[in-house]
């Protein structure tokens, strides 16, 4: 269906003519730029309302099955008899299996990774009905005890709304990608009341760029979605905790140590998710649809011993932040959570991995804090280290330290710990990246051979001219006889020229075989001809300080296949060819 022209309007159903007010409205909205900003606001509004609806479903389901009056099920699960703790998760697994069989395909796959793939590979296209179904099933499964995050459903519905709107109005791929990122970011913002952190998450993780032209749409969508959720749900930080503050400079060193430890744990978290998914990918095709039921049955078995692993783990994180969990649970529950989360995600239970990573980090940080209290009493309580652990694991698993710091700050509202939080997050991200080069989201795509952009700016990753140099195997002095020059040129590979240098290695000129053919001197003068007579001294060489974009421009304005590279003193360093630049360069 073609896109309507700027002045087109829908006719009145009775007269066939557009009404004046509709004409005025459409005339203002149908301009491409204005229409895009209206859609940005619309995506934020839809994401906010979708979050309100999905969280209402979460509360209703948990109240129905766990007799819990809030969205946090631990209290109801602790009061439930053993048979309920076992059967309710099994029911959740059965629901996922049933839906998978009905739609004819599994609901597995990490939602955020799919959104990144949609943005960078599929021009912002997401299957709208499947995304909505996956989001709805995800929120039900989490309410029934799946050890995954509720944010998965909110990201899916937000991103799907952006994709659907861009598809219905036939927007270009650029605007479609931005709208999908706006929807996903707005979903996070409304899920956790974190408009700033969610906006930066969209830029840093989904779009891989802090470009100013992307910042405005993301921020607007997150603000609108957060305003809706604050109006209809609640207006307070996700975690209401005691006030923690830095009391001694040594705590910065402890935050540094925590960042190193949690960075290693973050790499373990990513590796555990991926290894489990790879193992479960090998199950027979006939068994795959039933794996959610198997996984949730095992979750039910663990709940018989204790329900701390059920659901997204908000209550356990809150207890760690308040310092009320015993050290034994702080040490055991993170690994147990990683095991059941990996099992369910790999088996095909839809849900987010964001909130389980907060659980993992908060409890590890709390355990570290209790150890510090034993060795160095008088510092901040263990709950402060739980907060640092949350931020460090979030940065380590996503490789996005900026958005991680701001998200944790907005979730807790504790600004006085911002310095150790920043330090722990950056160190954890560096350590995790060194141990596990791909993040929690990009690792899924790399296993499927989907290429995603680097989150580090290209000019920091750029190898530079020196790394692309080819060594010079032959060079001649300006006094080299003509016969020697010809023989050396004939021995060179195709496209390789001969360089004339002085005794100190400074470039004097270039001799090419093609140019030599058309300028042969009289035969009687061949014996007197030397390299200086036939070289081209007008070739402009490359210097190592040039960017690869500048090198590409210079190669585009010459007929030579390669250009010489010289230092500031014009001493010949090597050569760089068009082929090497295109194969290995980033510009």
TrEMBL record:
- Superkingdom as given in the UniProt entry: Bacteria
Q: Where are the transmembrane segments?
A: 36-58, 86-104, 131-148, 178-202, 214-232, 252-270, 290-311, 323-348, 354-372, 384-409, 415-432
Question: What one GO molecular function would you report for this record?
Answer: chloride channel activity
UniProt keywords, alphabetically: CBS domain, Chloride, Chloride channel, Ion channel, Ion transport, Membrane, Transmembrane, Transmembrane helix, Transport
**Any GO CC annotation of this UniProt entry:** chloride channel complex
Q: Gene3D superfamilies annotated for this entry?
A: CBS-domain, Clc chloride channel
Q: Which SUPFAM superfamilies would you find in this protein's record?
A: CBS-domain pair (SSF54631), Clc chloride channel (SSF81340)
Q: Which CDD domains match?
A: CBS_pair_SF (cd02205), Voltage_gated_ClC (cd00400)
Residue intervals of the CBS domain: 535-587
How does the record say this protein sits in the membrane? Multi-pass membrane protein
The answer on whether this UniProt entry bears the keyword Transmembrane helix reads yes
Q: What Pfam families does this protein map onto?
A: CBS, Voltage_CLC
Against InterPro entries, the record matches this protein to: CBS_dom (IPR000644), CBS_dom_sf (IPR046342), Cl-channel_core (IPR014743), ClC (IPR001807), ClC-type_chloride_channel (IPR050368)
User: Where does this protein reside within or beyond the cell?
Assistant: Membrane
What this protein is called in its record is CBS domain-containing protein
Natural source organism: Corallococcus sicarius
């Amino acid at each position: 269906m073609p896109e309507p022209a700027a002045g087109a309007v829908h006719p009145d159903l009775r007269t066939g003519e557009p009404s004046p007010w509709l004409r005025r409205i459409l005339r203002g909205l149908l301009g491409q730029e204005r229409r895009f900003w209206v859609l940005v606001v619309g995506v934020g509004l839809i994401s906010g309302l979708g979050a309100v609806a999905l969280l209402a479903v979460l509360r209703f389901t948990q109240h129905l099955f766990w007799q819990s009056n809030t969205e946090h099920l631990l209290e109801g699960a602790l009061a439930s008899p053993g048979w309920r703790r076992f059967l309710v998760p099994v029911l959740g697994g059965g629901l996922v299996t049933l839906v998978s069989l009905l739609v004819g395909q599994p609901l597995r796959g990490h939602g955020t990774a799919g959104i990144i793939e949609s943005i960078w590979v599929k021009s912002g296209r997401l299957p709208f009905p499947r995304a909505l179904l996956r989001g709805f099933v995800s929120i039900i499964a989490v309410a029934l005890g799946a050890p995954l995050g509720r944010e998965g459903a909110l990201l899916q519905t937000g991103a799907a709304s952006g994709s659907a709107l861009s598809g219905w109005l036939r927007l270009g791929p650029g605007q479609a990608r931005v709208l999908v990122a706006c929807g996903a970011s707005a979903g996070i913002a409304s899920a956790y009341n974190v408009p700033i952190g969610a906006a930066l998450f969209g830029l840093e993780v989904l779009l891989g760029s802090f470009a100013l032209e992307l910042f405005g749409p993301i921020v607007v969508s997150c603000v609108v979605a957060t305003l809706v959720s604050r109006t209809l749900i609640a207006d307070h930080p996700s975690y209401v905790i005691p006030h923690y503050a830095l009391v001694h400079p040594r705590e910065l060193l402890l935050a540094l140590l925590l960042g190193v430890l949690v960075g290693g744990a973050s790499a373990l978290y990513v590796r555990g998710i991926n290894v489990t998914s790879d193992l479960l990918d090998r199950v027979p095709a006939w068994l795959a649809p039933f794996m959610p039921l198997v996984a949730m049955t095992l979750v039910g078995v663990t709940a018989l011993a204790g329900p701390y692993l059920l659901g997204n783990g908000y209550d356990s994180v809150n207890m760690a932040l308040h310092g009320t969990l015993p050290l034994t649970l702080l040490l055991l529950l993170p690994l147990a959570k990683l095991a059941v989360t990996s099992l369910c995600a790999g088996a095909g239970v839809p849900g987010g991995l964001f909130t389980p990573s907060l659980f993992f980090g908060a409890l590890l940080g709390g355990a570290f804090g209790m150890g510090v209290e034993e060795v160095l009493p008088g510092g901040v309580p263990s709950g402060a280290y739980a907060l640092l652990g949350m931020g460090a694991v979030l940065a380590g698993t996503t490789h996005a330290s900026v958005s991680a710091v701001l998200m944790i700050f907005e979730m807790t509202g504790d600004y006085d710990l911002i310095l150790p939080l920043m330090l722990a997050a950056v160190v954890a991200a560096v350590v995790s990246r060194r141990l596990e080069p791909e993040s929690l989201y990009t690792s899924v795509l790399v296993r499927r051979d989907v290429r995603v952009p680097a989150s580090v700016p290209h000019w920091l990753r750029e190898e530079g001219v020196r790394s692309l140099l080819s060594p010079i195997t032959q060079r001649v002095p300006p006094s080299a006889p003509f016969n020697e020059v010809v023989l050396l040129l004939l021995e060179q590979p195709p496209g390789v020229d001969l360089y004339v240098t002085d005794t100190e290695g400074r470039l004097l000129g270039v001799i090419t075989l093609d140019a030599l053919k058309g300028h042969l001197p009289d035969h009687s003068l061949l014996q007197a001809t030397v390299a200086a007579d036939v070289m081209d001294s007008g070739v402009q060489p490359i210097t190592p300080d040039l960017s690869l974009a500048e090198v590409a421009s210079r190669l585009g304005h010459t007929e030579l296949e390669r250009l010489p590279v010289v230092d500031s003193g014009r001493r010949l360093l090597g050569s760089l060819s068009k082929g090497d630049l295109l194969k290995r360069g980033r510009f």
